Amino acid sequence: MNFTIKIPGLEDVWITKVEKMEDRIALHVEMAVKVHKCPGCGERTKKIHDYRIQKIKHLKWFERLTYLFYKKRRYACSCGKRFAE
To answer: Which residue in 15, 23, 9 sits closest to 69, CA to CA?
Structure first.
């Protein structure tokens, strides 16, 4: 059964996995790839360097603690600078 639910604050992310434990909920989320501006030289890049998982404590959801596991993307610029989205 597939369904879509809109969660406040998470409208523009993809929820890839939901884990329900007895006292907490874990949502695994990621965002779409976009062109970003390099903070070093100002050039626009879409080249991905790597991914890192960031654990974020979110608001309670159905009286359970909620954690977001965000698949954070790091970009690489042609000037050699690497930066997070």
So the answer is: 15
Integer Cα distance of 10 and 12 in angstroms: 6
Structural domain including 64 reads 14-84
Of residues 75, 79, 71, 73, the one with CA closest to residue 45: 75
The count of structural domains within the chain is 1
Burial environment of residue 66 by CB neighbours within 10 A (0 to 12, 13 to 18, 19 or more): middle
Handedness of CA 81, 40, 44, 35 (dihedral sign): positive
The pLDDT tens digits along the chain (85 residues) read 445 566 667 777 888 888 888 889 898 988 888 899 999 898 999 999 999 999 988 877 777 888 989 999 999 998 989 998 8
Q: Which of 15, 45, 76 is nearest to 58 (CA)?
A: 15
